[in-house]
Write a structure and sequence with these properties.
This protein is 31% helix and 17% strand. The chain has 337 residues and is of the alpha/beta class.
Length: 337
């Protein structure tokens, strides 16, 4: 029982979560039942069952949809896309990839053909509009499948019923470093992508990986929560691995005043925003029962390079983000992983 702060003798009132959260938690339970059940004949209304399957599918489809659409339109990728168009090929590295996330292992009935087809469909428009003959999609991470995958035949990229190129897919179960790239003759990336990397999770170590990635390489990172996205940007800033700050975060970190340089020219090409290609599935937090989140909900993009603080107006404050909360480093919080 929680007191409402009224006068003595006034009845105490129990306060629970809102009706919206209550409804979302019911959907979370439906999704978990459908995802975990090996028996498709669940004791569930067929419409609820299909809606849960659709939400689960949307979560996995958010990976290729985010990858293709954000790289197509993001400001920090345009120069490299022009350079790649000249040689008619694009190399994408998905760093820290996992079998049960980017590679869809948890989708009931999915196989590698389903996964590759989804990425091919998502990347076809990019290939066609930029004139790429080949897109290489390389997944590298300690949670990739034990058996490395390399398609014997490339997947055709087709747009408007017309073949426009080939998609080559490879996976490697390894930490991302120079040894694995050189040993497997993996070409250097044109863009590196991190889906929910957990830069600030204490149990993870990203320093060596980030130190290895070449200066000038564009990156895309997604997070489940806005707070973690801000913390990830702070981490990259502290590691001196982000060329410029997104306008909103530059103000949060105290580098610029809201009225400075209103055309935004000094902010470069970095961005931080909600992801329009995030899924419809809502998940329940494993540490705070009434807390919910959506995977890949926020996205951060930029270029790997040293930040130049000389463009800041006035005295530059500490790079330390004072509003960072301790929850940013809880490895057990699924919203941060």
């Amino acid at each position: 029982m929680i007191s409402d702060g009224g006068s003595e003798g006034e009845e105490e009132k129990a306060l629970g979560h809102s009706s919206v959260i209550c409804s979302l938690l019911k959907l979370c339970r439906d999704d978990e039942r459908v995802e975990e059940s090996l028996d498709l004949e669940l004791d569930m209304d067929p419409k609820r069952f299909q809606a849960a399957k659709d939400r689960i599918r949307s979560e996995y489809e958010s990976y290729p949809a985010t990858l293709a659409n954000v790289i197509s339109d993001g400001p920090c990728y345009q120069d490299v896309l022009k350079a790649c168009a000249a040689r008619k090929s694009l190399v994408l590295h998905i760093v820290g990839a996992a079998e049960n996330a980017e590679l869809w292992d948890a989708v009931k009935g999915a196989n590698i053909d389903d996964v590759v087809t989804a990425y091919a469909e998502a990347l076809s428009e990019l290939a066609g509009s930029r004139g790429f003959d080949v897109i290489q999609l390389i997944f590298i991470g300690p949670d990739c499948p034990e058996q490395s995958l390399q398609l014997t035949k490339p997947m055709r990229l087709v747009t408007r019923d017309r073949p426009v190129g080939d998609l080559h897919v490879r996976t490697y179960r390894s930490i991302y470093n120079r040894d694995v790239l050189e040993h497997n003759a993996i070409p250097k990336p044109d863009v590196v992508v991190y889906f929910n990397p957990g830069f600030t999770v204490a149990e993870y170590s990203w320093n060596d990986t980030l130190a290895f990635i070449e200066t000038g390489t564009p990156f895309l990172s997604t997070t489940n929560t806005e707070l973690e996205g801000i913390a990830d940007c702070q981490y990259l800033l502290d590691q001196d691995k982000i060329q410029s700050l997104p306008p909103g975060l530059a103000e949060i970190f105290g580098f610029y005043s809201p009225g400075d340089d209103e055309d935004g020219s000094h902010f470069g090409t970095s961005f931080f925003s909600e992801n329009p290609f995030s899924p419809s599935r809502v998940r329940q937090s494993g540490t705070m029962a009434n807390d919910v989140f959506i995977k890949n909900r926020w996205m951060l993009g930029g270029i790997v390079d040293s930040f130049d603080p000389s463009k800041a107006t006035g005295d530059m404050p500490s790079k330390k983000l004072r509003t960072s909360a301790e929850t940013n480093s809880k490895a057990g919080n699924p919203a941060l992983i």
